[in-house]
Amino acid sequence: MKKILFILISGIFTITSCTNMLDLYPISSSTKENSYTKPEDFTQLLNSVYAFLQSNGQYGQNFHFLMEVPSDNSKETSATVRGGVYYQFEILQVATDNSIIEASWTDCYKAIQSCNILLERIDNIAMDEPLKTITIGETYFLRALNYFNLVRLFGDVPLILTETKDPADLLSVGRENKSKVYEQVIIDLKEAIKKIACYSGRERKGYYRGGIYAFGKSISYIEAVSGSCGSTAQRKRICFGEKLFTNIRSG
User: Fold this and answer.
1) Are 217 and 172 in contact (CB under 8 A)?
2) How far does the chain reach from its first CA to its final CA, in angstroms?
3) Distance of CA 235 to the CA centre of its chain
4) What is the DSSP letter of 89?
5) pLDDT-derived band of residue 143, with 50, 70 and 90 as boundaries?
């Protein structure tokens, strides 16, 4: 009986000890509480957004089928590869359950979530101010790029500009009119220009000046295609040309 009692007590002690060990705060992995507290965390977060651009859902693969194959620029010849999901873009008959569509949508919004996290949290971090400024500028550009691709591919899309802390919150988010999405793209590009224009680091100043020049052209193009220059195709072309010429002269 004493042996049985000893075994039971030992077992309880072992379980309690294991429970205490499991309750230790994780120090070797990222959690919601210990993430994004150091400058290097935000460098990694920004790098992750660039990584999404290389993903299969974006420029790594799917954008070729979404943007080029439906045009005359490229051609998909196989009607059977991966069950024909690529060929659907060739014949312009894309099923609603096409996995290419889902992957591109998901990877764009993952990148946007990372952008929103960075923009909301970075102000509270003590870090080199020029580095913080350029990091914010690049993030605004990347969010603008992701929304620009989404609105061109899907039209009206959810416009999410804050960090999503609970996925359930997205259930109540509807699609925003594409004109509003284009407006936000322009707002983000202008914020990117302001931040990058303030960058004082000599080693990459020329690189970022080139970025500002390109952003200005992007704004002109977006204003033209989004309808802010008028409703007719001719007026859009004229407005785009006027703005492009103005930007070239002022650049």
Assistant:
1) no
2) 91
3) 32
4) H
5) very high
Average pLDDT (17-36) is 57
pTM for the predicted model, two decimal places: 0.73
pLDDT tens for residues 154-175? 989 999 999 988 888 777 889 9
How far apart are the C-alpha atoms of 113 and 170, rounded to whole Å? 12
- The pLDDT, as a whole number, for residue 71 is 78
DSSP string, 202-236: GGGHHHHHHHHHHHHHHHHHHHHHTTTT-SSHHHH
Residues 104, 66: contact at Cβ < 8 Å? Answer: yes
Count H helices and E strands in the chain, helices first: 9, 0
Q: Cα–Cα distance between 40 and 28 in angstroms, integer? A: 16
* Whether the predicted pLDDT of 133 surpasses 50: yes
DSSP 110-171: HHHHHHHHHHHHGGGS---HHHHHHHHHHHHHHHHHHHHHHHHHHSSB----S--S-GGGGG
